[in-house]
Amino acid sequence: MKSKIAIAALLLSPLSGQYALAEDEAEVEEKSALTVSAELGFLYKTGNTKSGDIKVGINLKHEKDQWLNMLAFNALAKKLETEDENGKDVYESTDNKWDILGQSNYSLEEGGKNYLYGSAFYQQNKFNSFAYQTSASLGWGRHWIDNETSSFFADIGPGVKYDVIRAEPATATTIATEEYSETAAILQVQALYTNKINDFVEFKQYFVAKQAVESDKNSYYRSETSLTTKLIDSLQFKFSFLVEHDTEVETGFENTNTETSVTLVYSF
Q: Please, what is the average pLDDT of the chain?
């Protein structure tokens, strides 16, 4: 009897090993469906001028079946040392903003190139013409390029944009204004190109246009160019250049703002 049990166990052991291996592979596949990266940049200056800058970002990406879900959060804060009316050194904020972008893509066929998308965006900036800006869009997209070294996808669809224009106090040359909101129908066009130059360097170009249907409404454009260099398996060095443009802003504010940053990115 014992010998029969031993023989049965011997026969089943390869099957149990294969089952355990399949289970491990399934766990790895499930874990790899979610990727997370966090970036951090910090600059502190002393001497003739004193200032502190900090930039943080978090990106999440989840893929399962025909779904691709993405969430990106970015924040920037800058403070510069100045003197108050009593001659005392104080730190004054010169930049303070954050934004969050979420998008879900549903592939129309498994492994196919065409997809439907839904996206939502929110931005708050204490130093531009808007107290906050938000938008949402639905539409169609396509993976035009998708290989080992390069990828390019673009999507287009109608949407709506809601802006809250900042209240401004009166000055010697202007009158006080009250906070008010503006809603506009938009056509959103979005594209992302990625090129893996080699095993250590990757180039990315992102562009989005939120074109207002009515000519007197504000349209928003954003372009971000980045170059990432791998330091170790999980740690990267990132250089990025961001351009944001609003067609309609209040008096005293610039239509175009740029941001150049250098950060460390950790992926896990």
A: 85
- CA atoms 167, 126, 217, 102: torsion sign: negative
pLDDT in tens, 151-207: 999 999 999 999 999 887 656 566 657 889 999 999 999 999 999 999 999 999 999
Contacts for 167-171: CB closer than 8 Å, 24+ residues apart: 167/131, 168/250, 168/252
Q: Which residues neighbour 141 within 8 Å (Cβ) at sequence distance 6 or greater?
A: 105, 114, 115, 116, 117, 153, 154, 155, 156, 190
The residue ranges of every structural domain in the chain are 1-32, 35-267
> Architecture of 35-267 per CATH?
Beta Barrel (2.40)
Q: Exposed/middle/buried for 218, CB within 10 Å: 0-12, 13-18, 19+? A: buried
**Cα dihedral sign, 106-109-112-116:** negative
Which two tokens mark 47? 């001497």
C-alpha dist (Å) from residue 139 to 19, 23, 49, 104, 154: 42, 38, 48, 11, 11
Instruction: Record the pTM.
Output: 0.82
